[in-house]
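>> received
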Amino acid sequence: MELEAVVFDMDGLIFDSEQVVQRSWNIAGEELGYGRVGEHIYHTLGFNVKRREQYFKGVYGEDFKMAEFGVLSGKAFRRIVAEEGLKVKSGVRELLEYLKRQGIKTAVATSSRREYSTEILTDAGLWEYFDGAVFGDMVENAKPDPEIYRKACEKIGADPEKSIALEDSPAGIRSAHAAGMMPIMVPDLVEPDEEIQQLYIKKFPTLHKVLDFLQCQAE
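>> returned
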């Protein structure tokens, strides 16, 4: 395998954050009178804020209070992280260190906003490993559209066909595949269905297994 770059999703892949998001959504939903809305995360994985708002309005009506929901869920998320921390997924550091030693370019392609993403990556000591990043507020079209992965490859000067995309969500796998990349799935909250299984080159339970795969390919 001729490999130029590895592009990482963030939430659910680098950080064990999706369950924290789900809890924060439940808190915000109850405060606003919508009840526990956390289950909707299974239908919105990989969405940016704009696309998530469209989804919630489709479920709860056009008067869904997205701005208030965002503020309240953000406060709840930060409170949970302050009390419990935000866990980095097992194998992330080892994989990033290996890629750096091999001279393989790395980037982040996350639907989350720039400010939030850079903050948590910096706090975890991971930001310095990446050669570039594209965030959800830097694209017009959210995953599963290929825009974010195409831009991430452009940002680091990598050929998409010689680049791996690491993803935990079906929307992310669709996005990377449509961008012409080699998607690898490391599931978090959602397992792939038959359609998604046709779009990735490999599926692994952990990033440790991804590292093992890359090392075998390099031999």
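>> Residues 145 and 175 are 5 Å apart (CA to CA).
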